[in-house]
Amino acid sequence: MSATIAAAGVKVPAVLVRPCRTGHLLRRCRTAAVRASALEVCVKASSTVPGRLGDCPFTQRVLLTLEEKKLDYDMKLVDLSDKPDWFLKISPEGKVPIIKLEEKWIADSDVITQALEEKYPEPPLYTPPEKASVGSKIFSTFIGFLKSKDSSDGTEQALLNELKSFDDYLKDNGPFINGEKISGADLALAPKLYHMEISLGHYKSWSVPENLSYVKNYMTRIFSMDSFVKTRALKEDVIAGWRPKVMA
Asked: What's the pTM?
């Protein structure tokens, strides 16, 4: 899949092919067919490099879902510091991600990924309810530690406790949250762990302890997936994105 227009696996309707009498026109017709089938998704634009994807972990969750389901999509980069009128018309709250499904714009990564699972059930990314919340407290405790200016306030230990709990879970149930195959819960958690790794490494010279080997292997495994590499934010954007919370 492509962050602009992906052509893989798209069948070009015959009505579009017949008028194309040259190789050049044929390519144009195929591109038009792909454009017609691609899902439109609005995402945060990079604040450091023009024309690049920004640093929203919730947006990456949606893009990962699209990639893992091998769906064609067309990203629309939005400068959230200067939101254009066309974007505010479809997203009055000015939030991303937002995706167009069946001629309707849908917001919120939870709602979007559920809708994608229902409309495009293959390959399945469903996570059983009893496993859906595994690792869900890591993100909030990471933010607490990142914002902390008191090394003795317990925020680091709170994060370590959550990571240890996740490590124990993976030891017994891994390598992914739902066992052998990746699921939606992994696609929700992994971008947050990516932000945790980069921002805590930069602002606190902190990293996941070596003794939490199952967590470290989990991160390495998912961060190296093609879908993750394609949809991850630049490190510079992650660092810049968290700076206001660190400096507050």
From this structure: 0.86
- Tokens at residue 121, please? 């059930």
Q: Give the pLDDT band of residue 18 (cuts 50, 70, 90).
A: very low
Is 20 tagged catalytic?
Answer: no
Percent of the chain with pLDDT over 70: 85
CA 240 vs CA 54, 56, 165, 236: distances in Å = 10, 12, 30, 6
Catalytic position from the list 20, 29, 42, 56: 56
**Three-state secondary structure of the chain:** CCCCCCCCCCCCCHHHHCCCCCHHHHHHHHHHHHHHHCEEEEEEECCCCCCCECCCHHHHHHHHHHHHCCCCEEEEEECCCCCCHHHHHHCCCCCCCEEEECCEEEECHHHHHHHHHHHCCCCCCCCCCCCCCCCCCHHHHHHHHHHCCCCCCCHHHHHHHHHHHHHHHHHHHCCECCECCCCHHHHHHHHHHHHHHHHHHHHHCCCCCCCCHHHHHHHHHHHCCHHHHHHCCCHHHHHHHHHHHHHC
Q: Which residues contact 67 (CB under 8 A, 6 or more apart)?
A: 1, 226, 227, 230, 231
- Nearest alpha carbon to residue 189 among 170, 202, 172, 206: 170
What is the dihedral sign for C-alpha 212, 63, 70, 52?
negative
